[in-house]
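User: quick one, fold this
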Amino acid sequence: MFLTSIIGSITLIPGFIAFPLAKSLFALGAGISQIAVFISTLMMVGVVTALVEIRYFGKKATLARNLMAYCLSFIVAIIV
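Assistant:
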């Protein structure tokens, strides 16, 4: 789950590609928790877009939002 969370955090893929990708990964044998954390971090954590976010919201708010989203992704994966 840690590896998929890192990949999801640094990847910039739109939702209409990410969800079919998740279906393909599931068909190939990936676990539900790994897919959940991948999709969650992909949609909520923005490492690639952090510089733009820092410009508009500030460093502290960007860091706080990304850390909360990262932690929430693991909570979602555990619940799923």
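User: anything notable?
Assistant: Residues 2-79 form one domain.
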